Amino acid sequence: MPSISDNSPDPKVPRHIAIIMDGNGRWAIRRGLPRLAGHRAGTENLRRIIEACVEFGIHYLTIYAFSTENWGRPPEEVSGLMRILEDVIDRELNELHKEGVQLRHIGRLERLAPHLQEKVLHAIELTKHNDRLVLNVAFNYGGRDEIVLAIQRMIRDGVAAEDVTDELVSRYLFTAGVPDPDLIIRTSGELRISNFLIWQAAYSEWYITPTYWPDFGKDELKKALDAYAQRERRYGKVSIED
Ligand code: FPP
Fold this sequence. Notes:
By secondary structure, this protein is α/β, with parallel strands linked by helices. It has helices at residues 24-30, 35-55, 75-98, 114-127, 143-156, 166-172, 218-230; strands at residues 16-20, 60-67, 101-106, 133-141, 183-187, 205-209. Residues 21-26, 39, 42-43, 46, 65, 70, 84-85, 88, 137, 139, 188, 213 line the site of farnesyl diphosphate (FPP).
């Protein structure tokens, strides 16, 4: 993967933001609309947030679009979310490519319909040299599933127990080569990790807002970035003032 140019990153600006885009269903129900209308509104909002991330100099954005647990939703919602992924690729790919967005996928592609897998792979191939923003789309993604898969692959590769280190595990994850998220945003106020980036989130800062995802626009993102800039990241150590 080509490296993103950040020779002197500003520690007050997160290099990598990950987002749990929650609250689409409640957003829709409050308006008397079907849940899928909330996912559609959430998709439009995603466009705004991608643009804002480019503008604010964020280098990596990871979005939780479909979890390994989401297969348990009603079939029409599952197929609606599949259609949204397809529509996003069909309608937005060229524009994202022009804007220098590199699309990546984390999760397992194999349970998706073959034609959708092909579209995802085409989008990844087309944009692989872009370096303005890396957009990781977590689709059929689960943090535990990712770790299980990494362990299986390490065993298959014959890795010796004493060679298993933090760095090696990271290299076996879907996010290999991507720095851990500095900031994780969760919309709609729930206080849980929901199987998202459970390895990578070890030292991430969290920002949780009651705002539903379709309403989490550029101004809300700016508030999250301002809150992040106030944080002191200690990584388990003591403050420099102590
Ligand atoms: C959680 O809200 C949201 C999701 C499970 C789907 C998120 C998907 C999008 C925003 C569409 C973008 C997708 C792609 C493929 C780019 P919820 O339905 O759990 O909301 P609720 O908790 O209010 O019911």
